[in-house]
Amino acid sequence: MDRQSNTAIMLIGHGSRRETYNSDIEGMINYLKEKISIPIYLTYNEFAKPDWRSLLNEIIKEGYRRVIIGLVFLGRGNHVFRDIMGELGIQRLNSWEVSKISGKEVEFYVTEPLSSSPLIGLALYYRLARALDALPTLEYTEDPYEIEERSMNYILPNLDVKDAREKRVIGKAVFASGNPEVAKYLKVTNLDMGIEAIRSESEIVADVKMVSVGIRWKKVTCMIDDERTKELSKELGITRAAAAMRLSIGQGGKVVVIGNAPTALIETIKLVKQGVDIPFIVATPPGFTNAKESKEALIESKIPSVVLTGTYGGSGIAVAIINEIIKMAMEG
Question: Which CATH number fits domain 7-132: 3.40.50.1400, 3.50.50.60, 3.40.50.2000, 3.40.190.150?
Fold first, then answer.
């Protein structure tokens, strides 16, 4: 056996004559089994079966020589030090030690009891806070249309933008970011081209899935996870985002939405220089390397676009912008 296949986990709880205690522990074990691939055995120190001592001997007979003892105890009392560590001949928690069991050398790792984790304190706090009704009561609306309407009623009057359609697009970017300062960094160039491209049912190409899944349009392509993208990226030594743009834009005629990857924008600009016609670009990739420079290059190129300049950006902003453009196109 290798080290992984030679390892088993044995969880030890106190045990109780009352079955409800044991069933509660079993529910937790089922959760762990979904997360960890090596064998996990639930045992008890007393009052319930299987007894950890008997099961340990069975595990050793099966050939396991590395055993993680997961202590399902709150604190470091006699059951931990005397009954478990004492009988195993183990001196320290959270470290591997060798002990001889039934004539066999076995490596043991005994975990700390649960009370040392802040998550236990947090779980107890939640229970006490609910009893005391100490958790805050929020007054809010769950209606998505009301949320958007109330937000835009706050945002739009505070935007100093003359063109009504540009104001709507910038307002949605502010809404998506939660930051009114974003309006200062948005550059809109020839918005009509984007609206007309959507009206003519142009396909939309997105740089990453976070963008593509949010776009409310019937023709959206994202090739970031395509095997051909991975192969091209490796072959040319470029990012997957750049390779995805090269493959998905093709001969052009598609609206491009980039909310995450500056290299996707760089590749898109390269394609335009090589003769590919792109009617409109939404570019909001954030970052401190390539992001600012690529967006400045897009503005200088005069390609119809909405650009969030500087290091600001994000996928949610890109999605909000293109969805508002789609909405305006559908309004006629």
Answer: 3.40.50.1400
